[in-house]
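Hi R.,

Here's the chain you asked about this morning:
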Amino acid sequence: MALTDTAVRTAKPRDKLYRLSDALGLCLEVTTAGGKLWRLRYRFAGKAKMMGLGAYPAVTLARAREARDAARRVLAEGQDPSLVKRAEKQARAAQVHTFEQLAEEWYAYSAPRWAESTSRKARLYLDNDILPDLGRRPVADVTRPDLVALVRRVEKRGTLNAAGKIRQWLGQIFRYGLANGTATTNPATDLDVVAAHAPRARNHPHVPLSELPALLRDLEASRSDLHTRHAIRLLLLTAARPGELRQAPWAEFDLDAATWTVPAERMKARRPHIVPLPRQAVALLRELHQLTGAYPLVFAGKARPERPMSENTINKALRLIGYGDRQTGHGFRHLISTELNGRAYNRDWIERQLAHGDADEIRGTYNHAHYLEQRRGMMQAWADEVDALCSGAEVVPIRRAQQ
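And here is the predicted structure, written out as tokens:
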């Protein structure tokens, strides 16, 4: 006899699994734990087979009969309904694009056009913050509240710069998804509207020149290792960006020619940059070469020499000697720019030393290696002045006429 809703609802577990038959091969399987599963018995190619049609009460008696009839239609067409069901499930799974797949496609597309530092940072934030939360979710299931919650967690750590980068990259990931058809909406738009407000702070603070000797004395007396102390002094002698220095391989340096050539892919402005090295910088690098010359990187990491020192190392060292809110690694560029401009050096020399982009793109393209010898003289004079200032000599800065 056919089953009824009441018979299905009131079926109780027994000591052994048993089945209640309906019609045309449909039955209800009742487990010893009380589970109720719909099964369809059928024959295909001369063999008795059975397939599942879902669990009660999620699948009602009426729905189970509909599924039975659909399976029997497949059987009448000469196909095995179990195999057809499995193939349909695999096809649906293949169509579900996860957020991790989309993010990895975006990263593979974008990374070749980034500086090495940018691609490393994006990889770090993907692996540590973005993918653990969202990676396994289908792209279509990721909502704006999900993204806001993710960014809020990063903000609560106090890393507002990281939160800003993550907002930016989430937006780019979904824009990429819209362009290739993986995503239908961009839930990452306008996340900046609800961003936490950063505390008001001076950008890249730096001490006045008169306090530089005290800072360097405090640095030498600190517990910071030689690599860190030399990195800070090299920033002061070259006006390089901290990231460019941290990630510099020995192959970029020609100590005999006293030059450091940074390739375009490592530069913010995406053009090669030649840095003249004062004698003092060459001496520091020769000393470092005795320590890390066996590794590719000048500032090889302690635990993992194939990776550069942490981006926080320099600022941490300055903070530990009491200059946390008064001097940063990047702040040395501001100090050098202020002092060299105050000495009336040619503005183009200074801007080229700082590797700033040229407002005139064509002029910048043809001028990228200009003024090397002029900058060499300028930076040697600057290094000598710092030495004299630290030795206690009275220094009268030489003002240079524009050339």
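One quick note: Residues 160-180 form the longest helix (21 residues).

Cheers,
M.
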